[in-house]
Amino acid sequence: MPKKSVAKPVAKKLPKAVVPDNALTKRIAQLEATVAQLELEAQIERTYTRYSHAVDYGPAELLDDVFTEDGEFDILSVGGEPRLEFVRKVGRAAVEEYFAWQIEYNFLRGRYKHLSFAPKIMSVKGNVAKVETYFSAWREENAKPYLLCYGKYRDTLIKQRDGRWLIRERNSWMESPPSALRSPGHPGIERVPPGFAWKHS
């Protein structure tokens, strides 16, 4: 009696392990780093743009979206001399009060325009960025544009939870002409009149 043939089991082919493409992985990492850098630059430029529009046209409350709550602002030189007639503004409320006065009594009347440009990111450590940028201030004089001054901002910005980068500290000085800066220990002289009343809306 013939023997029945028994079919041999067919061995299943196991899928080959996926070998990561090192070149592709590296390229993806490079693209992610580039996007992060572009996002950082765009957010900082956005903050600087909002600063210019806020101080030129007001209201000063728009600086809520520019400075951190504990933000500081200082002007260290003007007209070739250390800026003695200025007291460092500590806290966003003090910064906004100062600019509310400037907007009402100077900037709107003189049709001032504050421009910042060519920001240079000096360093980024975690959520802290150090940035230097040029600025110029213009006003109208005899129905013509007049360059009032130019100089530099040195900023420290802090990244917020929502992705914005806000100014924690801004030191500015004029380079037209260059001069020594007000020493850190000098208390300065307050320019905002004691009778000026401003309240955050």
Q: Main β-sheet: number of strands, strand sense, barrel status?
A: 6 strands, mixed
Mean pLDDT: 89
Label the CATH architecture.
Answer: Roll
Count the DSSP helices: 2
| Rounded radius of gyration (Å) | 28 Å
Sequence stretches where pLDDT stays below 50 over 5 or more residues: none
- Roughly how much helix do the residues carry, as a percent range? 25-40%
Q: Count of DSSP E strands?
A: 8
Order of helices and strands: HEEEEHEEEE
The dominant shape is elongated
The name CATH uses for the topology is: Nuclear Transport Factor 2, Chain: A
In whole angstroms, the N-to-C terminal distance is: 105 Å
Written overview of the protein:
This protein has one domain (24-174): Nuclear Transport Factor 2, Chain: A (Roll). Helix content is 26%, strand content 34%. It contains two helices and eight strands, in the order αββββαββββ. The strands form two sheets. The protein has a six-stranded mixed sheet with strand order 4-1-8-7-6-5, with helices on one face. The chain has a two-stranded antiparallel sheet with strand order 2-3.
